[in-house]
Amino acid sequence: MPIAQEPLSVEVTLPREDVALLTVEGYLDVDTATEFQHHLANQLHHGRRHFLLDLSAVPFMDSSGMNIILRVYQEARDLPGSVHIISPTPAVRRILDLTGVSITVPVSESVDEALERVDAPQAPTGPEA
């Protein structure tokens, strides 16, 4: 008999017109990643360019969750926009560090810190830098 897991909860708030704060709670894995992706796609559709992902209540994330974060990062970067991870739990931070995602996607300790990074002038990245 499979172990029942808590469903994923995603709360979306708009600190500013072009910024979506997604507060995620629960396991972000192959079973819940599609729901997370729908929330992000909906915000992209409504013109948000910057995404703040509060992962402070995510005890576990697998490659499905990481792939979605990297995909929205790529889409946001092309707008141009940005993605920021906020307060990941130690287990999630370890995965982000081990896979190098935390090098690509900035990690902040608070919403205010992430908003400051959104407002900071962006240095060129990639091959044109």
- Which regions are unreliable across 5 or more consecutive residues at pLDDT < 50? none
* Mean of residue pLDDT values: 90
The coarse silhouette is: globular
Structural class: alpha/beta
What is the rounded distance between the termini?
A: 53 Å
The Rg value, from CA coordinates, equals 14 Å
* Proportion of residues in β-strands: 15-25%
Q: List the strand order in the largest sheet.
A: 1-2-3-4-5
Helical proportion, percent range = 25-40%
Topology:
Elements: E1 9-16, E2 19-25, H1 33-45, E3 50-57, H2 63-77, E4 82-86, H3 90-99, H4 101-104, E5 107-108, H5 111-119
Helix pairs in contact: 1-2
Describe it.
The chain has 5 helices and 5 strands; from the N terminus they run ββαβαβααβα. The chain is of the alpha/beta class. Strand 1 and strand 2 form a beta hairpin. It starts with 8 loop residues before the first strand and ends in a 10-residue tail after the last helix. It has a 5-stranded mixed sheet. Helix 1 (33-45) packs parallel to helix 2 (63-77). The model has no long low-confidence stretch (mean pLDDT 90). The longest helix is centred in the middle third of the chain and has 15 residues, at 63-77.
